[in-house]
Amino acid sequence: xxxxxQDFAIPRFERLAEFVPNVDVAGLDCxxxxxxxxxxxxxxxxxxxxxxxx
Length: 54
Hints:
With 54 residues, this protein is α+β, with helices and mostly antiparallel strands.
């Protein structure tokens, strides 16, 4: 799950791991439109997650 740390529409759900087993959570210093605001950083987070999946 990638959150925009400045997103006021969808705040970080602290209990996410209770509902989504093995979830990985990342936060980027942006608002709601994460992919548009920080495309390179979003791609980096996704790429690192994919590498960990083996």
